[in-house]
Design a protein that fits this description.
Order of helices and strands of chain A: EHEHEHHEHEHEHEHEHEHEH
Number of helices of chain A: 11
CATH topology of the largest domain in chain B: Sulfite Reductase Hemoprotein, domain 1
Radius of gyration of chain A: 19 Å
Shape of chain B: globular
Number of helices of chain B: 15
Distance between the termini of chain A: 48 Å
Largest interface: A-B, 40 and 51 residues
CATH superfamily of the largest domain in chain A: Rhodanese-like domain
Largest sheet of chain A: 5 strands, parallel
Shape of chain A: globular
CATH class of the largest domain in chain A: Alpha Beta
CATH topology of the largest domain in chain A: Oxidized Rhodanese, domain 1
Bound molecules: iron/sulfur cluster
Strand content of chain B: 15-25%
Oligomer: heterodimer
Helix content of chain A: 25-40%
Strand content of chain A: 5-15%
Helix content of chain B: 25-40%
CATH architecture of the largest domain in chain A: 3-Layer(aba) Sandwich
Distance between the termini of chain B: 45 Å
């Protein structure tokens, strides 16, 4: 694989085999965003630990830049992120890197749990890293604020809520459509095959040049996965409302709900 | 391409579905139709008819979401199919599925735009939703004990499957005056054959020293706002006549059924208006005609190859027997006619089961059933058959792990509740939740251990339509609204003494019971029964005695029961008891609100 080709920047996910060969070639930096204690018990060889909680405690561009440089990630470095949930947490980290201007970031297409189940190599060594230089070129075109959302919505942008169906029915931003994060995954991979994801959009009459804003409950994880699902099928005009529904509610903006049904009672415990 | 496969190897002696009932073209066509509908190119009514024919109901007060009903002939399921339903529910529904009273799965709150994706997924695993709703021949049911029931004469399953093969997508069953239901059973006790359009019980007779297989066929029964018990067509219908009889009946209904008035369109009204004898004659004549025309062309394709039974070799040594085992064995299992094997009924709550539980059930079927299958039951339940008796403790332990080991499946604690206000447009009350509440309370009170109550049933519908089958319950309820001054409260009409066996009887109306008094009312009835019963008498038999006018000195009729219930069902003012005025599962004050009905159990 040619490490510096332009096309590589659009690679949304990478599979285990390719990642393993890139690790062998030392042409990639891998970020493990699980908790430190889990990381210490074993991780993909060479992976650097960046617990999501640490990142979220201060995700200002300056701080993120600091992390990036301390991990030895340069402007051109290939980065791969993984988690052990279903790709949503990794997505949030990937998006953050993208936001500060790091183009070449991908998601491992399986979770760490699956990696382990496949019997792929794991070790417990923390790699040593050399500090690098990384520039800061913010990409505001992938971020939506509440104000931006209101405006864009009026102009016809699609608003996509990635929370679970029952949460959505209970309350959501008026006019949003619901694509629960579980709808994005296949039984093996964090994202469904492209044809299937494309069909989900086609069935909703969403064209490939639509502007789409994704959001979820609080910090933009589930909707981060939504963001990458859309990117993976070539939709480019996608933004993440990163402060999501939590902020929306705290701003006391209007909320819509599905009336007159006791849908909660249908879910088995 | 990845050469690391995520799929784990599964043993390859696992039985897989034999028939693919699904069609990919139908899924693709559905997606097209949704788009046209959204663009306003198809009328609402046309689209509605189309989606119903493909198993998609509207959800309560909205057409943007569907309830998808699968059509599972005879309730038969294979583990791979359960896994698929679980996956589809996780992706497109709410992470759970609902087992209906007609052996089907229902997936709720699926976005209309995703229905086609669900249909696709189902095709992958051999399943369909085709003609699961609408004015068609609905899924043909077959007792979950067919093939293993100690009282059956032969296994009717192959006939249920063959009849489905003939009727599914058959032009003849696409535009009937109303829906049409066919049930096969193993024996009188297990199949509700007198409560459907066509009910069939296996029979055999000796003719000139030769054994002839056939059926006892009942026509024109059905539950609903007005219910009827089916009539026996003739003493014995040989198996060769089965297809002709079914075709003749469907054709007569198609020709003569009431297409003007939807409320009187079911075949039972035709039978009732015409009179049984006339209807019976028509069917017999039509059958003779059909036979002349059809016999050269079609025969029912009955595949009687027995299911391959696998040797299951589990080292069944359990270090200890988990708590609650004997209670569970007593109320959830039935010994099969094949010695050494049992069938196991799973207690669900109002038929709800999570996707994780479905996967666990699939694994248990793979590991512990000799036939490698699961069947959905008639009471919102699921059934394992062919479990080796010595494996029962292990199965119980596994069920415990996933919260499926509740006792009481075959007793009065296992309550049926239709979907009610959780998703149905016509619902007046949350029958779904009430059924769960009653069940939880009664398990807690160990009602399942009481042999006097074992044969009795409780069934709850959210409105007078009987999707919850309240009319054939020992104690049945259907939802309504009550009012005190200007304040409305949810209530139920209570019927007593219904049954669905060879003495099929519809319940008699007793009294109105406020929703929040349903539990104490049932307990009060049990208390009255205990003080009145004769030795060895069960609740359902006592009830029948009272209804037939042979009650004791204290309780002569249902009116006497009603009298004794008065204190329990008294209506407090809103100031005295605010909670009384809210339905289960809802904190706000009750108000009845309904939309256009599409009928969904
Ligand atoms: S129409 Fe059927 S499902 Fe709906 S509330 Fe009435 S009985 Fe229940």
């Amino acid at each position: 694989m040619c490490g510096l080709s332009k096309g590589k920047t659009t690679r949304v996910t990478i599979d285990a085999d390719n990642l393993r060969s890139e690790i062998r070639d030392k042409s990639v930096k891998v970020l493990d965003i699980r908790k430190e204690e889990d990381y210490k018990k074993g991780h993909i060889p060479g992976a650097i630990n960046l617990p999501l909680a640490s990142l979220l405690s201060d995700d200002s561009p300056e701080k993120v830049l600091q992390y990036t440089q301390s991990f030895g990630i340069g402007d051109e470095t290939s980065v791969v992120v993984y988690d052990d949930t279903f790709g949503a947490l990794a997505s949030r980290v990937a998006w953050t890197l993208e936001y500060i201007g790091h183009e070449d970031v991908s998601l491992l297409d399986i979770t760490f749990g699956t990696w382990k189940k496949l019997g792929l190599e794991i070790n417990t060594e923390s790699p040593s890293t050399n500090k690098s230089n990384h520039s800061l070129k913010l990409k505001p075109q992938i971020l939506a604020t509440a104000d931006y959302l209101v405006h864009a919505k009026e102009k016809g942008a699609v608003l996509m809520d990635n929370r679970e169906r029952l949460n959505f029915l209970e309350q959501h931003i008026p006019g949003a459509i619901n694509i629960p994060y579980r709808m994005l995954a296949s039984s093996q991979n964090i994202l469904k095959p492209k044809e299937e994801l494309k069909r989900l959009m086609q069935n909703r009459n969403i064209s490939s040049d639509s502007e789409i804003i994704t959001y979820c409950g609080s910090v933009g994880t589930l909707s981060g996965l939504g963001y990458y699902a859309l990117k993976s099928i070539g939709l480019d005009n996608v933004k993440l409302y990163v402060r999501s529904f939590k902020e929306w509610k705290s701003l006391e903006k209007p909320i819509e709900k599905q009336m007159d049904a006791n849908y909660w009672d249908l879910s088995a415990e | 391409m990845s050469n690391t496969s995520v799929n784990q190897a599964k043993p390859d002696n696992l039985p897989k579905h034999k028939i693919n009932w699904g069609k990919l073209e139908e899924a693709e066509y559905f997606a097209e139709q949704v788009k046209l509908f959204r663009q306003g190119k198809i009328s609402k009514d046309d689209f509605r008819r189309f989606r119903l024919m493909h198993g998609a109901y509207g959800s309560r007060m909205t057409d943007d979401y569907s309830m998808i009903r699968l059509k599972l002939p005879a309730g038969e399921l294979y583990p791979e199919q359960l896994d698929k339903v679980a996956e589809l529910s996780d992706s497109f529904s709410i992470g759970s599925a609902h087992v209906s009273t007609r052996q089907n799965f229902q997936l709720h709150w699926v976005a209309l735009e995703d229905v086609s994706e669900v249909l696709r997924g189902l095709v992958d695993a051999g399943m369909t939703t085709r003609e699961a709703c609408g004015n068609s021949v609905r899924s043909i049911m077959c007792s979950p004990l067919a093939g293993v029931c100690p009282d059956e004469i032969f296994d009717p399953t192959p006939y249920a499957v063959a009849t489905t093969k003939f009727l599914l997508r058959n032009p003849m069953s696409q535009a009937l005056p109303r829906k049409f239901k066919i049930n096969f059973t193993c024996c009188e006790k297990h199949g509700m054959v007198r409560m459907v359009d066509i009910g069939l019980i296996p029979q055999q007779v000796e003719i000139n020293g030769k054994t002839q297989l056939g059926f006892k066929i009942f026509l024109g029964g059905g539950l609903g706002a007005q219910s009827f018990v089916g009539h026996l067509l003739e003493d014995f219908t040989p198996e060769e006549e089965l297809l002709y009889t079914v075709v003749a009946t469907v054709r007569i209904f198609d020709r003569l059924g009431n297409r003007e008035n939807m409320a009187r369109a079911r075949m039972r009204y035709l039978v009732n208006e015409m009179g049984w004898e006339k209807f019976q004659n028509l069917v017999l004549k039509e059958r003779a005609m059909v036979k002349m025309v059809l016999s050269v062309l079609v025969k029912l394709d009955v595949d009687k190859t027995p299911d391959v039974l696998r040797k299951i070799s589990i080292s069944s040594e359990m270090p200890y027997i988990p708590q609650g085992y004997s209670r569970w064995i007593k109320s959830n299992t039935i010994k099969q006619k094949q010695s050494g094997f049992s069938s196991v009924f799973l207690t669900l709550e109002s038929g709800d089961v999570t996707s994780n539980q479905l996967r666990a059930i699939a694994d248990m079927a793979r590991e512990l059933t000799a036939d490698g299958q699961i069947r959905n039951g008639f009471a919102q339940d699921m059934v394992f058959r062919w479990i080796k008796d010595e494996d029962l403790p292990r199965l119980y332990a596994k069920l415990l792990e996933v919260g499926l080991a509740n006792p009481g499946a075959l007793t009065m604690t296992s309550v049926v509740g239709c979907s009610g206000t959780t998703s149905c447009n016509l619902a007046l009350t949350n029958s779904h939740r009430l059924a769960k509440e009653v069940q939880r309370k009664f398990i807690e009170l160990k009602i399942d251990e009481d042999d006097d109550l074992r044969n009795s049933t409780i069934k709850i519908s959210g409105c007078p339509n009987s999707c919850g089958q309240h009319e054939i319950a020992t104690i049945g309820f259907y939802g309504g609204g009550g009012r005190l001054g200007k304040d409305m409260y949810p209530l139920y009409n209570m019927l007593l003494g219904g049954r669905a066996d060879e003495d099929t009887t519809l319940g008699h109306t007793c009294t109105k019971v406020p929703a929040k008094r349903v539990i104490p009312t049932i307990l009060k009835i049990v208390e009255i029964f205990k003080s009145e019963k004769r030795q060895g008498e069960t609740l359902d038999l006592w009830m029948r005695r009272v209804i037939q006018g042979n009650g004791g000195p204290n309780i002569k009729s249902l009116d006497d029961i009603k009298e004794l219930l008065q204190p329990t069902i008294a209506v407090p003012t809103k100031d005295q008891d605010e909670d009384f005025y809210a339905d289960y599962g809802n904190d706000a004050s009750y108000h009845a609100k309904t939309g256009r009905g599409e009928c969904a159990a």
